[in-house]
Amino acid sequence: MKYFRKITSGIMLVAVPAFLFSQIKPLDAMLTEYKYPYEVHFIDLKSQDNVLKMAYMDVQPQQSNGKTIMLLHGKNFNGAYWEKTAKDLSDKGFRVIIPDQIGFGKSSKPKSYQFSFSQLAENTKAILDKLGIDKTIVLGHSMGGMVASRFTLLYPEKVQKLILENPIGLEDYKTFAAYQTIDQAYQSELKNTAETYKAYQLKFYYDNKWKEEYQPWLDLIAGWTLHKDYPQVAWDAALTSDMIYNQPVCYEFKNIKVPTLLIIGTRDRTAIGKDRAPKDLQPKMGQYQELGKKTQKEIAGSKLIELENVGHLPHIEVYPKFFSALYDFIK
């Protein structure tokens, strides 16, 4: 029997076949049962009176070109969604390092942790130090773009080139949206379901057009909501939302001196706290067709590739166009 569930997410209203959600499997906080596309390694970190494990993949090329590239994931993702990007880069001779940030993916989910982009950058640097990598190209998507920007500002000597793919943080969300406490953010995170996640992704990532290849990246975060560990995951998600809101990087783009490429899907309207902003300001937030150009002017000598009618996830939605822009910049 076919039937539909109506989904109200606070973002949009959409009818989705209920059977699409029936195959999502519960996933524990560390994604123990979820197999990543490449072998996962761990580095032990002693940080803020915590003993933590940070996961990463290290994809080695068969014939090295002598270059390394590090891929940094977004807030609603982990390193697994770089699978095709990593394969094609490896085929081109690049060594590919793919961390899961603390609080994400297969890395530790600490209860007491002061999340900051500087701390995440330091944690990321620890992986490179362990592997003896002195120089790397850095690619950051979404929240990973904020991590990549902070990493570049802190450790410019380690960065050969910087690529920002639809990064968040191109504007200061505090100037639009009201503050919410971490406790309020946590309660909001606890309400997430497969349905609300899909409604959000349909609007901001895929323009209400769902394809089968998008499902794995929904399954990963939706699976967490079905497991008893979800409060642990939701707490770190609240902490990282607070980090994004309170620690803008947009004022420091002028200080980035390394060669930089912006890959911007111009249909993207992602903006943190948009639902808390006054109604008249909401349409002004997340205007990526304007924010890309503005950021290019801020970063001296940077290059901008605009992908028309593309949302928040170019490397999933229009992979060939994304990879062509990326490879032309780093080859």
Topology of this protein?
Blueprint: E1 4-8, E2 13-17, E3 40-47, E4 50-59, E5 68-72, H1 83-91, E6 95-99, H2 117-131, E7 136-141, H3 143-154, E8 159-165, H4 182-190, H5 194-204, H6 215-225, H7 230-246, E9 260-265, H8 288-298, E10 303-307, H9 314-317, H10 319-330
Parallel strand pairs: 5-6, 5-7, 7-8, 8-9, 9-10
Antiparallel strand pairs: 1-2, 3-4, 4-6
Signal peptide: 1-20
GO biological process, one term: acylglycerol catabolic process
Keywords: Signal
Main features:
Rossmann fold; AB_hydrolase_fold; alpha/beta; AB_hydrolase_sf; 331 residues; two-stranded antiparallel sheet; monoacylglycerol lipase activity; 10 helices; Pimeloyl-ACP methyl ester carboxylesterase; disordered N terminus; 34% helix
Structure description:
The chain has 331 residues and is of the alpha/beta class. It has a single domain (25-330), classed as Rossmann fold (3-Layer(aba) Sandwich), CATH 3.40.50.1820. Helices cover 34% and strands 19% of the residues. The protein is built from 10 helices and 10 strands. The strands form 2 sheets. Strands 3-4-6-5-7-8-9-10 form an 8-stranded mixed β-sheet, with helices on both faces. Strands 1-2 form a two-stranded antiparallel sheet. Helix 4 (182-190) packs across helix 7. Keywords: Signal. Residues 1-20 form the signal peptide. It comes from Chryseobacterium oranimense.
